[in-house]
Amino acid sequence: MTAPTATLPPAGMPGLDPGWSRLVVVEGTDGVPRTWHVLDNGTPDPVGTLLCVHGNPTWSYLWRGMLAAAPPGWRVIAPDQLGMGYSERLTAPRRLADRVADLRALTDVLGVAGPVVTVGHDWGGAVTLGWALAAGTQLRGVVLANTAVAQPPGDHGPALIRLATLPALRDAVCVCTPTFVRAATALTRPALPAGIRDAFAAPYGSASRRRSVGDFVADIPFAPNHPSRRALEAIAAGVGSIDVPALLLWGPRDPVFGQRYLRDLLQRLPNADLHRYEGASHLLPEDAPEYAAAVARWVADLGAGPDVVADKSTPPRRVSRTTPQGPTPEPASRHTLWSALERRADDPSPAVVEVGGLRVSWEALARRVQELAVGLAAAGVRPGHRVALLVPPSAELTAAVYAVWRAGGVVVLADKGLGLSGMGRALRSANIDHVIGSAPGLAAAALMRLPGTRFAAGPVNELVLRALGTTARLVDLARRGGSGSGPARQLPPEPGQEDDCTVVFTSGATGPAKGVVYRHRQVEAQLELLRLTYRLTPQDRFVAAFAPFALLGPALGVSTAVPDIDVTKPGSLTATDLADAVAAVDATVVFASPAALRTVTRTADDLSDAGRKALGTVRLLVSAGAPVPASLLLALGPVLPAAEAHTPYGMTEVLPVTDISLAEIQQAGSGDGVCVGRPLPGVEVCISAISATGAADGTLASTDGVTGEVVVRAAHVKDRYDALWSTERASSRDRGWHRTGDVGHLDDAGRLWVEGRLLHVVTTADGVVTPVPVEQRVERLDSVAAAAVVGVGPPRSQVVVLVVVPSSPSAGSPLASGELAGAVRGVAGVEVAAVLVRPELPLDIRHASKVDRQRLARWATQVLQGRAGRGRPVRWTGRRAR
Given 214, 253, 763, 827, which residue has the most CB atoms within 10 angstroms? Predict the structure, then answer.
């Protein structure tokens, strides 16, 4: 039987430059010449080569984005494997070892001498790794996307693929029909345009051209005696010996290669950089086309020397290779997160008080943390293990957090405000090893399909324990930790300053929630700065009505009261709730979000005399999480008459950066943006000016009056984004500095004014417009309760649209009345294309303070196109652009 010969792809395929295609004749290991179709950007005298290999049932078309985004001076070669794409068809199956040898023969003919970075997807990952193992000094790096080299223990392989390997079904779906071919592109999210789907299927238009599709499936070595099993096992065993940088790119929605395969690769390549493209599925290069630019940056960094900021996103159980960010002087004596517990281990006074619940003394908390740390270690929690905490704010949660830290584990915290699906995405991205949860938390862990062993916090009966697959209760672990003897009773070694401490998540207000990793030294530096800034002493006691601060009391050595509310719903805190919490510990300090404080002011008239008296003892009010207007702080004056009001500025990645009191806000007066004060001791703030394209590409400077991205350096800046190499690379591209994504300027007094998010800057034909100054001017109108600026149109040609909430309810059209629109335009200070009205603005869930301008921009675009009205708003799906 004669196999179809190799051909060039037909013209007109989307994104495919015909100049890249070439046919190459290569003599195989069996002595038979075969013709390959290869995409080759033909870079003369290249500094290196990217060798990109596809899997089944795609072809080199998968790598067209990589060819288009090639790093300067690099050659990109993407062959169609024999029998696939437009390469010569085969008359017999090719095994894995044959394909590795085929690739080596091809690169020899093409004159690939090195340095080489291999890029593999699906079965192309195993083929490129096989090539890499024999490459020697040619190999410079390895890039893998949604692939596998082994079945993890207890795993039987992807169900969809195992089903396709059944001979009768394999012939039906892989060869006789294009079902398997078409199914590959059906996995993408969002769906691919028809032209691209057709381009992927084009080489496989007949059964004779699909034969190798079936052969590829048949070559998956599930069975121990499979002909390719030994070759794959040799590749899997050799991966750990690859001593070059590696980059893993992953689509977590892949139904073929799930999280377990990523975990396996991370164990084999423990120093690999990793970027998860949230929302992407199996065909990652299609779902996340930005991968090509990320690979280009990563490859360019390989030759840039040690000073380049590369990934600081290390996999679990490993210490980051990178050096610390910013100034990190070693303290004379280290103050650990549990030092205050050890100092106050004989103190019977309350450490944590649940209003309406438990009162736990310092003595009892210190003992429980030590016993639980021993118990967790005995139950399998090892240094570096990641432990997700799904427990409501409480004394139980506090003890669990400090016990995990003391055992050397890494605490992983995700806000309930992300919603069940958002929490699931966040926690699965963190690659957790264990889960500690209340009964509802453990049930949620099951619904979220979280991996790891389960430990129950609080009262959980035996039936629920078994149903939820729980290993043990925390109370039992603490009992064992307190009653054991010898090594079983010993505390684990203390984690070091450079060990990972915690993973927390951003609010998701401007995209999928990002994991943020802190080492112990960074959290310790944050606590020291909080002590210094707010003059906290052991004589202080605080109410933690702001979730991020609910766990910091023991580390600060300050007694803490947790209000009898769900602190993940800040707007539920009433004045009476706050007074009860203050009275519970005679609090001197209150931490609360702006949303909580707004409710406190609205319900202040309900306070009893005893409540007013209790609130009168508070010396300090700290509000964070979103901009805090002076009007809100002024309104709180009668409620907290002795409290000095402060609002720190910062974000999940670094808090605090600056601080400002109410008196300083009043002194600063009105200006362009929100004045957030001067940088705190040890914190440096610079501005990277914005260009006409909306990019913050200006040199870092502290010149006053320049608007740009706010960039921060400090000892307590986050260590890295977790499993987000590309995001971390962009945010830390200025070595030692963190790019916040906020825009603002410094004034001549050194104060920072925040003008919005870089993502929300409007790029008009006349220049950039930052949203907050315009919104502030409009919100001074009596007729406007709230306002938001959005840009509509293509970049650099956008128009400014103002979405306002009228002070008086109105009905009917989403277009503002002529009177209201005229008033808005009169004070905006910029040219306004349209004024739209809504009954409310969409806010983030965590703080109920940050306007979701991306949603508003989509809605405004539809309104102006006549596709949405105020009475029938566009459905908010929660999906966000990457």
Answer: 214
641 closest CA partner among 604, 676, 595, 675:
604
Q: d(Cα 658, Cα 219) in Å, to the nearest integer?
A: 60
Q: How far apart are CA 480 and CA 482, in angstroms?
A: 5
| CB atoms near residue 206 (< 10 Å) | 10
Give residue 497's Cα distance to chain centre: 23
Closest CA to 513 of 624, 414, 626: 414
**588 contacts 542 by C-beta, under 8 angstroms:** yes
Element (H, E) at 650: strand 644-651
User: Token pair of 755, please?
Assistant: 């003008």
504 Cβ contact list (under 8 Å, min separation 6) = 413, 515, 516, 518, 548, 652
Do 819 and 826 meet the contact criterion of CB atoms below 8 Å apart?
no
pLDDT class for 487, splitting at 50, 70, 90?
low
Helical pair 211-218 and 179-186, crossing angle rounded to 10 deg: 70
Query: For the segment 468-479, what is each residue's pLDDT rounded down to a tens digit?
Result: 889 899 999 999
Residue 668 in tokens: 């600063």
Of 709, 741, 715, 716, which Cα lies nearest the Cα of 728?
Answer: 741
| SS3 assignment, position 860 | helix
DSSP 843: B
Q: Which stretches of 636-736 are DSSP H helices?
A: 662-668, 725-731
Q: Find residue 23's DSSP bridge partners.
A: 37
Q: What is the DSSP letter of 815?
A: B
Q: Which pair of structure tokens corresponds to residue 648?
A: 């720190």
Sequence-distant (≥ 6) Cβ neighbours of residue 4 within 8 angstroms: 88, 89, 208, 209
- Give the residue among 461, 456, 419 at the shortest CA–CA distance from 441: 456
CA distance 292 to 185: 19
- DSSP letters spanning 145-161: ES--SSPPTT----HHH
Is the peptide bond preceding residue 115 cis, with omega within 30 degrees of 0? yes
CB atoms within 10 A of CB 691: 14
Q: What is the pLDDT of residue 781?
A: 96
Q: In this structure, is the dihedral angle defined by the CA atoms of residues 298, 261, 279 and 469, taken in order, positive or negative?
A: negative
Strand order, beta sheet including 799-806: 784-792, 799-806, 832-837
- Whole-number Å distance between alpha carbons of 707 and 148: 47
**454: alpha, beta or left? (left if phi > 0; alpha if psi -120 to 50):** beta
Rounded to 5 degrees, what angle do the CA atoms 393, 394, 395 make? 145
Helix (H) or strand (E) holding 140: strand 139-145
CA dihedral 866, 872, 877, 878 (to 10 degrees): 90
Question: To the nearest whole number, what is the mean pLDDT of the chain?
Answer: 90
What pTM value is reported for the model?
A: 0.90
pLDDT of 156 over the 70 cut: no
- Tokens (6 digits) for 354: 């649940």
Q: Angle of helix 439-447 relative to helix 419-429, nearest 10 degrees?
A: 80
What is the distance between the alpha carbons of residues 852 and 844, in angstroms, rounded to a whole number?
A: 7
H, E, C per residue of 250-310: ECCCCCCCCHHHHHHHHHHCCCCEEEECCCCCCCHHHHCCCHHHHHHHHHHHHCCCCCCCC
The CA-atom distances, in angstroms, between 866 and each of 229, 719, 863, 870 are 60, 46, 5, 11
